[in-house]
Write a structure and sequence with these properties.
The chain is an all-alpha fold. It has a domain of 53 residues. The protein is built from 2 helices and no strands. The mean pLDDT is 94.
Length: 76
């Protein structure tokens, strides 16, 4: 198993993987439809998206948490 101290990185890896998987599917299917080779094109688009998305999630995640902390009230 992975040590708990790596949880934010593992979370970012999983989140970015799922998000880019779904978004690349939607954009690939909208661009080319169900044409021949669409699955290979989708997987290529997904890998490119994930390589870009993972570092962005790691960078933007902490800023998003701070922003949400400022917008919400802590319960006692």
């Amino acid at each position: 198993m992975i040590p708990a101290r790596f949880a934010p990185i593992v979370f970012g890896f999983v989140l970015s993987g799922m998000m880019t998987f779904l978004v690349s599917a939607l954009s690939t299917f909208r661009a080319v439809g169900l044409a021949d080779g669409v699955f290979a094109l989708w997987m290529s688009n997904w890998m490119t998206s994930w390589v870009i998305g993972f570092p962005i999630v790691l960078f933007v995640g902490p800023m998003s948490r701070r922003f949400v902390d400022r917008l919400t009230i802590k319960e006692p």
